[in-house]
Specification:
about 30% strand, 13 strands, nine-stranded mixed beta sheet, Rossmann fold, about 240 residues, alpha/beta
């Protein structure tokens, strides 16, 4: 449903927990990878979390349905930060989610260093030379390493998370080595990995990685996640995310 007052906005149904989400057609809109990432960690109500580069706030909203109750949603784009704040209010999640307009790569010193028990992050999948250039600068920032490299992003995550805290990532499978190298360089040890396929018998397009700050060497490879069992039909696992509500 489009907004009469703001024609570039539309209201989408998340189909989970009766939540809805305002999005802008001229900005980066969430896709299934956000839903997948929100279902990868195990959340605890007494632990603090942050979503780095929250966009519309979709991942924190989904996190609240899975037990998280202390979430900081950080977004550098003022338009998206304002939209995320409105989505939090729309879904009556103000008690659980705080939206902060900031560049998470520039958050240094107190009270940010080592502040969070866990972080979720859906970083840009492409470096500056990869992929088709988006139509707008804002969308480019969400998709490409325009201002910061993957190493910069990993370093920022390592700074914000507590010792022994966890950082959960979703990333393009073809750049998995880049991600693992970047994580090890900042002592975010990869501990759990899961490949994401569109269909069975197709190559993985995405990968989920759980890393622990100061963790011991040793990584568990989980069974693959298939998004669809056939065209336009979600797999049993993905359907369960929606059907449990």
């Amino acid at each position: 449903m489009k907004s009469k007052d703001k024609p570039q906005e539309r209201l989408d149904d998340l189909l989970i927990d009766n939540m809805k989400l305002w999005q802008r057609t001229d900005q980066f809109c969430f896709a299934i990878d956000a839903v997948i990432l929100a279902h990868f960690p195990k959340f605890h109500e007494k632990r603090s979390y942050a979503d780095l580069g929250t966009g519309t706030g979709v991942i924190p909203l989904l996190m609240t349905t899975r037990g998280a109750k202390q979430i900081t949603a950080i977004e550098v784009n003022p338009l998206m930060a304002e939209l995320a704040a409105r989505n939090v209010i729309l879904n009556k999640k103000e008690a659980y989610i705080e939206v902060v307009e900031a560049d998470y790569c520039q958050l240094v010193g107190s009270p940010w260093v080592g502040r969070f028990d866990g972080l979720v992050i859906n970083p840009p999948y492409f470096n500056a030379l990869q992929g088709k250039p988006p139509d707008t600068v804002d969308v480019s920032l969400a998709r490409h390493e325009t201002n910061y490299t993957l190493g910069d992003i990993a370093q920022s995550a390592a700074r914000l998370v507590k010792y022994r805290g966890q950082v959960w990532w979703i990333y393009g499978a073809e750049r998995l080595v880049d991600l693992l190298v970047a994580l090890r360089a900042v002592k975010l040890e990869p501990k759990r990995i899961r490949f994401v396929h569109s269909f069975p018998n197709t190559k993985a397009k995405l990968v989920l990685v759980e890393s622990t700050k100061g963790g011991q060497v040793g990584m568990l490879t989980e069974a693959p996640l298939y998004i669809y069992e056939q065209p336009n039909v979600y797999s049993e696992e993905v359907r369960s995310w929606y059907e449990r509500n």
